[in-house]
Structure formats: structure tokens, C-alpha cells
Automatic annotation (TrEMBL):
SUPFAM superfamilies: POZ domain, TRAF domain-like
Name under which the protein is recorded: BTB and MATH domain-containing protein 43
InterPro entries membership: BACK_BPM_SPOP, BPM1-6, BTB/POZ_dom, MATH/TRAF_dom, SKP1/BTB/POZ_sf, TRAF-like
PROSITE patterns: MATH
Length: 291
């Protein structure tokens, strides 16, 4: 199939919401040609509203056992963010190797298991859920909230024997981002990114403290929010913090003849001249190629 072409699965119900898988067999975006891109899509938003969920995607072998697995970080599915996943789910060459090793193809078809966990149930599902056995009290879940909400807690002492008299001042970071960074550091679980603004602020913090995995999650989230009104700011952010994936997404968006013409007539083009000269040169070269 051509790059950008997609297929959708049938819908399935989890946590009072309808979901489906969206697969791009030859990648979603030119930079992901040669990959399979895979996303979880919230299919019932109009009738069931927003949802928060995470998922695990596994390629099954002929014995119906996972031979390759990728996680989709917990995220909020809302009106302008109905799908979430990974554009680099698996390279074609790696998939070929898996097929030879594990005999993934069954009846000439590839079987993918999608294990979805909805972390916020709809109101009508809440009573039934309340009757179930409570999960263990673990740091990635309720214990993390307990630690965060305890007055006067010294987070440093959770995993360190350092003196409780030591204070660390953190500037240029709001409480929402600070909480998300601490959650990621202390629980190894990705925070919920509810908006492009949150992703931008969290990316800056992740780059500052060299949290590369968190930085990549923020990049991927921002790639889905590249639009004409914000592309100049997003590209400047990508340049400043060395975000190659986000930079490529912005350049690809602007490389479209229609988008490029509109952008060159906007204020964003002037901003790009001063803060991102290398990106501007790349766009100029692409314009010459187009014409």
C-alpha cells in the first residue's frame, strides 16, 4: 500500500467506550515510509464523550502468543485528539524478520492484539466498577496521588537518604509540569498529556533534565497538533530543543504547496527568518524543487 494509506478495524467496547485500531501499513508520513504505523482511535466520542486510556499492542504468532509488543502511553482522548499511537510501530525489515522467526502470518494475515485500559469510566459504568476488587496500592497508581497530595512531603526522601533539610528551588516550571515530571521520574509511567500547550511545556522540562523518553512522548504528541497558526512556534521549539521528529513533521506540513504559500505570506515566516534560518533554507530549497 502507498505511504499514508490506512485501514481500520471493526469497533470493540472497553470501559463504556467504542474503540478501533487504525493501521498505516506503509507508514503515516513520508519520514515513516517503510514502517507500519498503528493507532488506537476513540470511535464513540460523539456519544460517550472524552476518555482517558492506555493500550498495549502486540503482534501474535501462530500460537496466538505475543512476539512483539509496544505500549501506547496513557492519554486523554478528546474532540481534537481522537487517536493516539506510534507512527514507528515496527519497521518492515523487522517485521519480515519476526515473520520468519515466529511465523506471525496465519492464513496470510497478521494478527494484532490490542489490550486497552480505560482509566476513567463513564458515569453509567461506575456503579458496576465500584463492586470489583480494588487493585493493589502501587506507586504508579493511587500511592503516587497519595504522595503528591500529602502536605509537606519531601519527595527527595522517597528514594534518597539525603537530609530532609535540603531544599531545591525549581524555576521556569509550573506546578502541572513539575508534577508530571516527578510522576515520570519516580514511577516510570508516562504522564497524561491533555493539550498541545502541556506537551510544549513538558518537552522543555524533559529536555532540560535530559529525560529523553519523556521528550519523545511530547514530540509525538505535538506532531499531531501541527497547524498553520502554530507551526512557526512549534518549529522554533523543535530547533531550540533538537527535536528531529517534530522538526520533520513541521517541514513536511509546510512543504505542501498550498501550506507553503500561505505560510510565506504570514507573520510566522518573519519569525522563522530570525529564529530558524536552517529550517527556512530547507523550505526555500523545497519550494525551488516544487516549482
Amino acid at each position: 500500500m502507498a505511504n499514508g494509506a490506512k485501514v481500520r478495524s471493526g469497533t470493540f467496547r472497553v470501559g463504556g467506550h467504542e474503540w478501533r485500531l487504525v493501521c498505516y501499513p506503509n507508514g503515516n508520513g513520508k519520514e515513516y515510509e517503510g514502517y507500519m504505523s498503528l493507532f488506537l482511535e476513540h470511535a464513540s466520542h460523539e456519544s460517550t464523550g472524552d476518555a482517558t486510556a492506555k493500550a498495549q499492542l502486540s503482534i501474535l504468532d501462530q500460537a496466538w502468543k505475543p512476539s512483539y509488543t509496544r505500549d501506547i502511553a496513557k492519554t486523554r482522548f478528546f474532540s481534537s485528539n481522537l487517536s493516539w499511537g506510534t507512527r514507528g510501530f515496527v519497521k518492515h525489515q523487522d517485521l519480515d524478520a519476526l515473520t520468519k522467526k515466529h511465523l506471525n502470518l496465519k492464513d496470510d494475515g497478521l494478527t494484532i492484539l490490542c489490550d486497552v485500559t480505560v482509566t476513567e469510566l463513564r458515569t453509567e459504568d461506575h456503579v458496576e466498577a465500584a463492586a470489583t476488587v480494588a487493585p493493589p496500592f502501587g506507586l504508579p497508581g493511587q500511592l503516587w496521588e497519595a504522595v503528591w497530595n500529602t502536605k509537606g512531603v519531601d519527595v527527595q526522601n522517597c528514594r534518597s537518604s539525603s537530609s530532609d533539610t535540603t531544599l531545591l528551588r525549581v524555576d521556569d516550571m509550573d506546578a502541572e509540569v513539575f508534577k508530571a515530571v516527578l510522576q515520570f521520574i519516580y514511577t516510570d509511567s508516562p504522564p497524561m498529556i491533555v493539550s498541545a500547550s502541556m506537551a510544549e511545556r513538558l518537552l522543555v522540562a524533559a529536555d532540560r533534565y535530559k529525560l529523553e523518553e519523556l521528550k519523545l512522548l511530547c514530540e509525538d504528541a505535538l506532531c499531531w497538533h501541527v497547524e498553520m497558526s502554530s507551526v512557526a512556534v512549534t518549529l522554533a521549539l523543535a530547533e531550540k530543543h533538537n527535536c528531529s521528529m517534530l522538526r520533520a513533521a513541521c517541514i513536511q506540513f509546510l512543504s505542501s504547496p498550498g501550506n507553503l504559500e500561505s505560510f510565506m505570506a504570514s507573520d510566522g515566516f518573519e519569525k522563522l527568518r530570525t529564529c530558524c534560518p536552517s529550517a527556512l533554507m530547507e523550505l526555500v530549497l523545497k519550494k525551488i524543487t516544487i516549482y
